């Protein structure tokens, strides 16, 4: 069994910063791409940022220049550094990863989400 656990969400004022973390644990052989999605009230879930196993990244246009995704392969952890936060960044942020388990099955895993609220 594989689990993704997010942390680091909370309430922040506009212009502030937060750092999200997501740690994968369990029967892991290797991890391919990892990413962050978000879902605001009344909206569909959208990709925020993704990173491949070799470090290539891509970002939603709305967060380019403000958010940075990174990963620590030794810790099976992905991070999202969020700067210059705006009220429209308010959402539940979900971690996602494509993981080969120890039986070499490739599956798509999701965390339970962490709430980020940007408000004065």
Task: Give start-end ranges of low-pLDDT stretches.
Answer: none
Please state the oligomeric state of the protein chains shown.
single chain
Percent strand: over 45%
What fraction, in percent, of the residue positions are helical?
under 10%
Structural class: mainly beta
Average pLDDT across residues?
Answer: 97
Helix count equals: 0
Give the terminus-to-terminus CA distance: 40 Å
The whole-angstrom Rg is 14 Å
Give me the strand/helix succession: EEEEEEEEEEE
- Count the strands? 11
Principal-axis shape: elongated
Largest sheet: 7 strands, mixed
Describe the structure.
Helices cover 0% and strands 60% of the residues. The strands form 2 sheets. Strands 2, 4, 5, 6, 9, 10 and 11 form a 7-stranded mixed beta sheet that branches. Strand 5 (46-51) and strand 6 form a beta hairpin. The chain has 120 residues and is an all-beta fold.
Features:
120 residues; mainly beta; seven-stranded mixed beta sheet; four-stranded antiparallel beta sheet; 0% helix
Task: Give me a quick take on this structure.
Helix content is 0%, strand content 60%. The chain contains no helices and eleven strands.
């Amino acid at each position: 069994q594989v689990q993704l656990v997010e942390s680091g969400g909370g309430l922040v004022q506009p212009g502030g910063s937060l750092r999200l973390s997501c740690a994968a644990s369990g029967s892991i052989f290797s991890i391919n791409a990892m990413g962050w999605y978000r879902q605001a009230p009344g909206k569909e879930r959208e990709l925020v940022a993704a990173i491949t196993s070799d470090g290539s990244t891509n970002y939603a246009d709305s967060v380019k220049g403000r958010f940075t995704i990174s990963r620590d392969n030794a810790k099976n952890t992905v991070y999202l550094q969020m700067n210059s936060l705006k009220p429209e960044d308010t959402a539940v942020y979900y971690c996602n990863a494509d993981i080969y388990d120890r039986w070499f099955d490739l599956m798509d895993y999701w965390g339970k989400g962490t709430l980020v609220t940007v408000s004065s």
